[in-house]
Design brief:
single chain; 311 residues; alpha+beta; 3 domains; four-stranded antiparallel beta sheet; 7 helices
Length: 311
Amino acid sequence: MGRRSSQGSYVRASAIIFAGALACLVVAAQEPSFKVDVQLVRMLVSVTNTNGDLVGSLEARDFALFDKDVSQEITVFEHQTTQPLSVTLLIDTSGSTAKDLRYETTSLAKFLNALVRDGNPDDAAALYSFNDEVTLLQSFTRRLTRLEDSLKPLKGDAGTSLYDAIYLSSSPLRDREGRHVIVVVTDGGDTTSSKKYNDALAAALKADAIFYPIVVVPITNPAGRNTGGEHALETLAANTGGRAFYPTVGPDLDRTFADILRELRTQYLIGYYPRGPAVGDGKFHRVRVELPQHRDLRISTRTGYYGVVSR
C-alpha cells in the first residue's frame, strides 16, 4: 500500500510541475518580446585614383571597416557588383527650368535606355517630377515606353520642393532588392519644401540610397547661382556615397549620365554583421571605410546607417 501511495504522489507532483511549466510557456507566449535584428550592413563603395579614374581591381583584404570605431569583419565582398539597381529619377519642373526642360528629358531618356538595355535584367527605374508639389510619374518598371511617355508632358512652373521630393521618393526604395539610387536633375536649391535638409538626408540613408545631384547650371557666375543650395546637395551626396555634377545641357549632360552609370557598374559591395555596443539601438551608426595600403586612392561610400530593432 505504501509503495502505491509513493508512486501516486510522484505522479501528482510531476503533473503539477508540468502544468506549472505549461502555464509559464503560455504566459511567455502572450507577453511581447523584443529582439535585436542582427542586420547585414551593405556598403556600396566607389574608388578612384588621383586622376579621378575608377579603380575596380581591389580585394577584400585591401579594405578596413569600422562601425562606431569598432573594427568589423568583412563577410560579403563583390567586385563590380551586378546586384539589381533600383534608380529613382527626380526631375525639377519649377518655373526656372522651363527653357532647359526639353534638353534634360532627352538626356534622361538616353540614360533610361542604357540602364534598361545593359546590366542586370532586373534593373528598374521610377520617375518623379517636382516643383512646389511632388508627383509620381511612373513607379518602378523596365518598360521604356512607359518611362519615356511620362517625360513628354512635363512643363516648368512654380517653386522647388527638392527636399520633399527626396523624402517622399526614398520610402518606396526601402523594400526593394539590390542597390538603391536617387538621381535628381535640378538647377538650384530648395525653395518650397515642408521637409528640411536633415529630413531628406535621414530618409535617403534609411533607404540605403546613393544620391547623385545633377545641377544644370546655365551660368558660371556665382552671383547668379544658389551656391548655398548647391553646397547642401554636395554634402547630401557625400554622406550617401554619391557625388555632385555641374553639367550644361546637351552633350555635357549626356556624359554626366554616362559617368553615373559607369560608376554604378564599377562599385564594390562590402557587407558585414555589426559587432560592438548597441548594434540594434535604432540610432545612427557612423561607419568608416579605409584603404590602409592605398592612401592615394579616394573612397566614396555612405557615412553610416540606422540600426534596426524588431519585435
